[in-house]
Amino acid sequence: MLLVADIHLGIKGDDDLFLDQSKKLFVSMVEECIRRDTNEIIILGDFFDNRKSINVKTLNVAIDIVDMLKNNNINTFFIIGNHDTYYRTEIKTNSIRMFKEYKNVTIVDSTMTIDRMGLVSWNQSTDANIDYLIGHFEINGFPVTESIIFEKSNVSISDFQQYKRVISGHFHIPSTKDNITYLGSPYQLTFNDTGSMRGFYSFNDGKLTFIEFTESIKFVNVYDDDKINPNDIKGNIVKLIFKKDHGYNENQKIIDSIQSYEPVRFFTHFDVYREEVRERAQEMKDIKNSKDILFDFIKLYDNPSHINPEIMMNIVNELLEDVK
User: Fold this and answer.
1) Other Cβ atoms within 10 Å of 278 Cβ, number
2) Of 6, 16, 55, 154, whose CB is crowded by the most CB atoms within 10 A?
3) Mind listing the pLDDT tens digit for each residue in 46-57?
4) pLDDT tens digits, one per residue of 179-224
5) What b/e readout covers 180-201, taking b as 16+ CB neighbours within 10 angstroms?
6) Rounded alpha-carbon distances, angstroms, from residue 187 to 27, 122, 169, 172, 212
7) How many CB atoms lie within 10 A of CB 249?
8) Which residues have CB under 8 Å from 122's CB, separation 6+?
9) Other residues' Cβ atoms within 10 Å of the Cβ of residue 240
10) CA-CA distance, 251 to 71, in Å (whole number)?
11) What are phi and psi of 254, to 5 degrees?
């Protein structure tokens, strides 16, 4: 069987680019099913992105995907993720119900056991008398980005020690600790995913095998002084980061050169340069002007008793204002 998690159909405001990614992903998975002579796919939650409403365009893509699976006789198990259910604490009101009439679809709205494998949706209890647990869990100790580890749940790694293997959706960064593996999203979703290989998995007899989704659009960071590989740019989402300001004309040449390699989306990012400007501005703030130096002198000078420093500074300030 094949496993995939966190499709997030309709992400980024029902962006056509990502809807097309999702359709291509399932085409690739159907082809892999045929190659491997398997007819089962388990979706480990978050098939949809929006918990509250589904755009008509996204709805049509979802139906196209499930029709594709039906037409290729692929039995599909939908584990319900937190993005698929309207309420966070219960899963009966969910967006996956629209597929309940499909004979090839099984909606996992309660814990299900197949042989020695348990399928568990969001916020549902687990079965201890199985070898393999497949679900949508929120477990402490796993990365939600490359630099942030999740620690907000009351569920820990030690709660799953009795299983030979636990496989989960929910966090988008692929990772493994002890006997627990998060599959991650099958394609890159943000610039935080830059450099991370994505795809889906084969699962047989306890063995999990990664299969790259080769048509995945990648998020690519490019610096203004990089040697450019056109293959990294074409068809991908690219951010050009300026380390310094080269002047308007030279900056534009660099931008034009990146755009000539046909990125599907293109952004420029001057924050590195802006940070330098901010630091210089702060340095300038730290340099005292002549009025501050004069005021410091008045405060620190051993004035005669009849001279009030505060009055003296007010007089100086008024004089300086008049000069302006």
Assistant:
1) 11
2) 6
3) 999 999 999 999
4) 999 999 999 999 989 889 999 999 998 899 999 999 999 999 999 9
5) bbbbbbbbbbeeebeebebbbb
6) 14, 22, 13, 9, 9
7) 7
8) 45, 80, 81, 82, 84, 85, 91, 136
9) 24
10) 52
11) -65, -45
The first and second tokens of residue 308, run together, are 């009030």
Q: Is 222 strand, coil or helix? A: strand
Helices (H), the chain: 11-14, 16-36, 56-71, 230-233, 248-259, 271-286, 290-300, 309-323
- For residue range 83-113, what is the model confidence (pLDDT) as tens digits? 999 998 889 999 999 999 999 999 998 889 9
Q: What are phi and psi of 276, to 5 degrees?
A: -60, -40
> How much of the chain is in helix, strand and coil states, percent to nearest 5?
35, 25, 45
How many angstroms from the chain centroid is the CA of residue 17? Answer: 16
Statement: residue 289 has pLDDT above 70: no
pLDDT at 132: 96
How far apart CA 99 and CA 105 sit, in angstroms, is 7
Share of the chain above pLDDT 70, in %: 88
**What is the full DSSP assignment across 47-106?**
SBS-SS---HHHHHHHHHHHHHHHHTT-EEEEEPPTTTBSSSS--SSBGGGGGTT-TTEE
Residue identified by tokens 């599959």 is 183
pTM metric for this prediction: 0.81
Q: How far apart are CA 258 and CA 255, in angstroms?
A: 5
pLDDT of residue 80: 97
